[in-house]
Amino acid sequence: MGKTAMCRGIARGLGVTEPITSPTYTLINEYEGALPFYHFDAYRLSSADEFQQLDSDRYFYGDGVCAVEWSERVTEALPNDAVIIEIEPEPNGSRLISIIGALMEGALA
Amino acid sequence: MNVLAIDCSGELLSVGVGRAWGSGGRGPESVKHPYREEAGHGHAGGPGFIGISIDAGFRHAERVMSAVEYCVAEAGLKPADLNLLACAGGPGSFTGLRIGMATIKGLSLGLAKPFVTVPTLDAIAADWEGSAGIVVPIIDAKRSRFYFALYDNGRLVAGPFDDGLARLIALTQDYPEVLFVGPDADLLETTVAERPGYRIAVERRRSPIAAMTRLAVEIFERSGQSPSGTGLVYLRASDAEEATRQ
After folding, report:
1. How does pLDDT run across B37-67, given as a tens digit for each residue?
2. B54 Cβ contact partners less than 8 Å away, ≥ 6 residues apart
3. Which chain A residues are Cβ-neighbours of B93 within 8 angstroms?
4. What are the two backbone dihedrals, phi and then psi, of residue A103, each rounded to the nearest 5 degrees?
5. Burial class (CB in 10 A: 0-12, 13-18, 19+), B95
6. Rounded-to-10 torsion of CA B35, B39, B42, B44
7. For residue A80, which residues of chain B lie inside 8 Å, CB to CB?
8. pTM of the model
């Protein structure tokens, strides 16, 4: 689908040199870059509450960049100004990518 | 009674050891450290308090044990001399609270010593006991919400709450004098500027560890030790729903 590939790109943009691996099992991976990069995967979580129990707020309201895969599973735990990126596979193998969020809309207006 | 208290509930890490504290958690009236040539620089007898507070980033798990070692040693004690262990019971940073609780439960098990939890807001309010007016400790709960409670000279008047600014104002506006304390009180700067009865404590990023140590003794003397399965009070709205369902 391309979620981890995209996170790899964000990490590279932040100057992270470590290899980026999927956090499906670890839930959160932390990397050092120009800004700290926090890579989450909510696939194994069943509720926003469970996500918050991991202290997601410490990351969201901290000093780094956070990317959350499967964020639709934990919508209520996300900050209101989060940017949502949807990746849809097309029949021809390409991807339709939508970027949604007040912050983005403000930037494009 | 010798007491070790740990507070990892927020950005500050603090550890305190009260030595030979009396009933009601009262420490020394004045710390007695007579310098005696013949005794060298050994530890003076009698009550004392050693506290350490670190406001330099959230690295509590790495720092907490060396802070414990330092405080216990400076108090002239060995770990086995401790009679009571304590940690912040919440609310606060989920991770931080768990670091404190895991540390205290581990020590409690290893040393076979009792422990108690001290509600975080109670400890912060106790640190400002004696201030005029209503004291309201503020902890940032994120998403424009606060953990807070109202205290009148150390006595809980209302709370604890996990709620927004509107509720905070509604509960406090009828008091002539309200003092907001605690590490996140500065979030209320705009609100305080608009209301003459509201004030923010200047030294709000200070550790309440001595007060927490005192409350630990009071709680232990009143209610005994906490059971080994004691949990933390995160105070999230979802916890309250959970409790109602049960």
Report:
1. 555 555 566 788 999 999 998 899 999 999 9
2. B12, B13, B14, B63, B67
3. 55, 58
4. -60, -45
5. middle
6. -60
7. 143
8. 0.84
